[in-house]
Amino acid sequence: MTSASRPEPGQMWKRDDPAAAPGDDGNSSSVRDTVPPEDGSPEAEGASTAILSVEALRMWFPVGGFLTRRDAFVKAVDGVTFRVERKETIAVVGESGSGKTTLGRTLLRLLEPTDGRLIFDGTDITHATRKDLMWLRRRTQMIPQDPYSSVNPVFSVQRILEEPLAVHRVGNHEERAERVLRALESVKLDPAESFIGKFPHMLSGGQRQRVAVARALILDPEFIVADEPVSMLDASVRVSILTLLRTLQERFRISFLYVTHDLATAKYFSDRIGIMYAGKLVELGPVGAVLGRPLHPYTQALMEAIPDPDPANRTRARTTLPGEPPNLVTPPSGCYFHPRCPIAKAGLCDQVEPPLRELAPAHWVACHLAE
Amino acid sequence: MPLLRARDLTLHYRTKKGPVRAVDSISFEIEKGTTLALVGESGCGKTSTASAILRILPRNVDRYEGELQFRDTDIMKLSDEEFRKQVRWSSISIVFQGAMNALNPTTQVGSQVAEPLLIHKDIKKLEAMDEVVSTLRRVGLPEYIARRYPHELSGGMKQRVVIAMALVMKPDLVILDEPTSALDVMTQANIMNLLKELQVRQGLSYIFITHDLGLSSELADKIGIMYAGQLVEVGSPDEIYRQAQHPYTRMLMSSAPRLRDEETPQAIPGGPPNLVSPPRGCRFHPRCPYAFKPCGWIASDLIDRLRDELIADRGTDGSPIRGFREVKAQSEGQLALEFEDGAAAKSALHPLESMLAELAGRWAPIGSVDRLSVENRWIVLRLTKPQDPVTLLPAHGASCWLLEGAAT
Hey, are the CB atoms on A96 and B184 less than 8 Å from each other? Predict the structure, then answer.
């Protein structure tokens, strides 16, 4: 999982953080040191209140191997900077291949970042070792996409939920049983006693996903990455799972990163929305601002592609973007979006990479032409 | 004359627990060049309806009947061989759900698109390839794609290949079973645009199966809302999206998240019923907030709540209902309250009546209690017989007792 499995490409580019530079093998010794926030990036000021601060994060995967030289990389996450505040839900929206899932996995340190910094509650976790991450594993959780394959089919609900407690040696037998029941009650699997003996195949998709949510909650985490938690579910069940997550967030004061391709559900479930395109965050802001006045042409195109139930739809074609998302090994020059952009300006967009600019309060956009 | 007219189309599957009523007597019509969208939650029989139309049946079919008039023939009366030759793929074809992931990875997609031609028509592969290339062009793919393998194509291109497969025999009606559910939003919009364009250019008719109401509005000229194997409401887009009548349609509409609307979506409580023993009467009544007297309540729906109410009542001082012992369901339509003796039962009759009337205001199913009578130390409650709601008219309508009540 960590650096041992692949060469560390860290030497190939400049490091901003001298503290992490020695020992690029990922065994940084300053794991639990408190790192002061750095300036110069959006939202860098006052980082002490954030649960997670992400600075110029890069997650590059080497491609090639045996016969080809390993000097090409899939730039799945390429210089992403934002903060997750406490008790906030931030939605990361993008097409498949935009790097949103990789971003979620990197934030939980299931992957070791290639570059940049990750600061969880004041502690730099960018290159922390597996052993040093046990405390992080307890304070962060993931809700996976597919409730059909993410729960062990031969485990009872009781055992599925007890597993994290056993791994982290929480409580004795009675206390664990009590926590399992409480977790089931909090996800509205009622009466809880009737569910503990059940096996996944006896549950519906919605119930399975509730079990997955209960498993994520059982260690009282502070930060949860929910990766498309409802995309496999029926439309009418989606709303109930998202409502549940929202209630739980308010009750247990959890921060969420909601990874999705669906702007419509992101609208109801999050406080802020970040739009990802080709490994970069192209727009970030409060839900109302981003959806009410989308500044980036890509955000506008994404919104245009989603139909609301409206009889008028059938008589007109939807405006769509030409082409496909770029290859992340050799992304386009300048703004990664310029080959598909309806308003791209030659000489500017194809040459200069647009920085994230704060065009409205807390509303950031990476586009030369947005105003 | 409609292109396809279904009357009482029924498809039941045989299982160990009894027949699964996947499609239960549904009727609809599709005019040439139009789209009928079938919308509903998973497991309500949308895909089974498609199987029933195309006679793609599994082995465990229990009942398969009804009338399917395609142009001027009743295609249900054709033999399997005639059906295969005259109807399947040449007149009615289908884009299966997830078909793009079922393309053969070892064969060039051109040959896969050509397969129906080689099987159904007596032509040489070379002639078939000409037809394939022109079909690929119709779905917006360049000629060289025919020589590509599936792994070389993007999701959107694979979906176009699958649509080309459905179009290669030039059918009149194409069934689209969730044609975009595995695709990205941008690709989805492109495919929907393609489907619209093909319909306008070639006068195709579609049956568009989806659980996404927003998406259904992209194509539908008529929408059929399915629930538990039945069509519960059929109407034009205006009627369904703006003034839905059936409570299920209304709840489905308000459960859809919308991008351009401030309303918070509301989940529909509960889940679709088991189709082996669906609820009596209206199949939606256990989840329906408006269900009342005739909607299909039976003794087992009432018994627990009634017992709780009577036991709670027994605890209060000065309650006129004295000597209550137990509630039993005697049959589906009959409950019996046991009292200490005949006198207690007799004196409890009137207070019970008023108590039930009051309870009915708070809890709709009690409204289905039709008659009370004293028999020895029992008070017998007879329930209104569950009745199936009115059948839909082909033009428009909803199958719901509320509307029947409003009409009379």
Answer: yes
